[in-house]
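Lecture notes, part 5. Sequence design as translation. It can be helpful to think of inverse folding as translation between two languages: the language of shapes and the language of residues. The source text, in structure tokens, appears below.
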């Protein structure tokens, strides 16, 4: 940001010797100019020409708010807007229309696309192992940027190394040094070590949150008492069949009691989960005490709280419709009896997320199953590391769910494998569908082994225990299999490190069929980017002026 012009002394984007600075004329610098001038001069520009797609009422609202919005800028060509601003700041050599690689006819929408593409991976076939693979069964839908990636490659760490760097943070390393495990959820310095991993696109794990929560309000008996008579759809995870308009008492009664669980027509016990409950922003209104309890104790609050310093979604002005970032609840029975079936199939999310396991319900012993022993066998067969197994054997902790998370850069390799497997079984994929976005596959042990053998892709095998929070980067394919019945709460956020993946997924979703659940941009990522840049530039310039 050292290339930003100073409005008072008139310095331009040139070095001391007068040489042209590529960084200063970059698309990001251009976007910063537009963002800044939306406050100082863009409102005057927007008055010059009427915009057919924006009503007069909307324009009046913006004028009253004193803040431009991306919806107006998207309909204007960057050449027109930038030209006006250039005239306004001629004395300061603010020639922001001359940006290499961006013709003057480009819109703000296209400029943002150009900026974000600079942080995407150069080669989609290079995953965390560095193994180059030719994709024969999947063709990426979006063109790839030839520019280098700004995201650091994943690394393996040792406790000896990081204890010296971060002596004040209690932590350990799982998955052969690739997964950060923070042990004190309330340590105010956690975000420092977290950032070191997060900027590399690696998931993280934080333990001990349940010790901070009011555990009584997160028990199934509490939910059954408050909401047992309410009706909601249930989903049989084994078949995908939806059971509409069921009383939730049916679900909660069978949460830990096998004898009270519903059976299908063939007499098989159903593997149920609550579908989309509660809806949207209803969590805060329906369960204010639980909402406040979660927000007061959620780990890495700098990222995960709605007003978090590093949560870019907090930069949206109040007059925008807020994106639905949660919290969301995930309530489902365990699936120990069905090793090839997941509770949540392989998918990826448009934003970053943290998923907190607030309650684990081990089913009562029906005389035919020892669920604790079966859970341990499942964890061992999934190749969980020794430290994870020690949490059960030595610390007597209760495992709840088995996660498999993959790097965002490996998503296309996974698609190639799924298309290959589908072709081997005679299936045909529609051009406007995507196996990951459709959430139609769970990678069992055989498929995970093929993924490693044929593509060199190794995921993170994470066992989520009671009180664990799993951090999932935007765009990272992941799947979940409940070992026991689980109550989880998830909160989404938009981090600076993951914003490029948020933008890329927005573009991917637009290519899905019109009836697909993920077809629209519900995150408003372009608005978020624009206002985050505007706020950042405003702060930098204010500090610069204060120092003079």
């Amino acid at each position: 940001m050292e290339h930003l012009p100073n409005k008072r002394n008139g310095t331009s984007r040139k070095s001391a010797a007068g040489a042209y600075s590529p960084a200063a004329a970059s698309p990001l610098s251009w976007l910063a100019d537009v963002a800044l001038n939306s406050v100082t001069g863009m409102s005057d520009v927007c008055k010059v020409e009427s915009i057919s797609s924006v009503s007069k009422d909307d324009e009046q609202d913006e004028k009253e708010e004193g803040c431009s919005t991306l919806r107006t800028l998207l309909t204007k060509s960057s050449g027109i807007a930038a030209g006006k601003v250039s005239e306004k700041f001629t004395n300061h050599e603010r020639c922001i229309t001359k940006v290499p690689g961006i013709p003057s006819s480009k819109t703000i929408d296209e400029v943002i696309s150009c900026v974000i593409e600079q942080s995407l991976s150069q080669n989609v076939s290079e995953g965390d192992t560095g193994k180059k693979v030719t994709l024969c069964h999947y063709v990426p839908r979006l063109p790839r940027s030839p520019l280098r990636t700004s995201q650091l490659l994943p690394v393996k760490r040792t406790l000896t190394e990081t204890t010296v760097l971060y002596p004040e943070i209690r932590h350990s390393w799982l998955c052969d040094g690739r997964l950060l495990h923070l042990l004190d959820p309330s340590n105010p310095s956690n975000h420092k070590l977290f950032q070191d991993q997060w900027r590399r696109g690696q998931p993280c794990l934080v333990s001990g949150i349940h010790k901070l929560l009011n555990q009584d309000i997160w028990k199934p008996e509490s939910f059954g008492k408050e909401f047992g008579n309410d009706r909601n759809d249930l989903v049989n995870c084994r078949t995908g069949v939806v059971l509409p308009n069921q009383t939730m008492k049916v679900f909660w009664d069978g949460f830990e009691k096998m004898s009270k669980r519903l059976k299908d027509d063939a007499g098989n016990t159903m593997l149920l989960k609550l579908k989309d409950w509660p809806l949207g922003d209803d969590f805060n209104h329906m369960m204010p005490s639980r909402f406040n309890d979660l927000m007061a104790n959620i780990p890495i609050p700098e990222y995960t709280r709605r007003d978090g310093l590093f949560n870019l979604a907090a930069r949206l002005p109040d007059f925008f419709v807020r994106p639905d970032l949660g919290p969301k609840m995930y309530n489902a029975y365990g699936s120990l009896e069905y090793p090839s079936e997941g509770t949540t199939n392989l998918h990826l999310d448009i934003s970053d997320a943290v998923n907190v396991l607030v309650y684990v319900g081990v089913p009562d012993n029906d005389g035919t199953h020892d669920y604790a022993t079966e859970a341990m066998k499942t964890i061992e067969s999934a190749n969980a590391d020794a430290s994870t197994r020690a949490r059960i054997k030595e610390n007597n902790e209760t495992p709840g769910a088995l996660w498999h998370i993959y790097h965002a850069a490996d998503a296309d390799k996974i698609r190639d494998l799924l298309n290959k497997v589908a072709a081997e079984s005679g299936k045909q994929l529609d051009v406007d569908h995507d196996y990951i976005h459709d959430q139609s596959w769970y990678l069992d042990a055989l498929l995970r082994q093929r993924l490693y053998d044929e593509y060199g892709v190794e995921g993170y095998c994470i066992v989520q225990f009671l009180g664990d929070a799993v951090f999932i980067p935007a765009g990272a394919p992941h799947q979940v299999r409940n070992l026991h019945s689980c109550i989880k709460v998830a909160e989404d956020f938009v981090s600076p490190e993951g914003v490029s993946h948020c933008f890329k997924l927005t573009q991917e979703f637009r290519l899905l069929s019109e009836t697909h659940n993920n077809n629209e941009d519900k995150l408003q990522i372009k608005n978020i980017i624009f206002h985050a840049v505007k706020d950042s530039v405003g702060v930098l310039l204010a500090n610069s002026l204060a120092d003079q």
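The translated text above is only one of many valid answers, since several sequences can fold into similar shapes. The mean pLDDT is 79.
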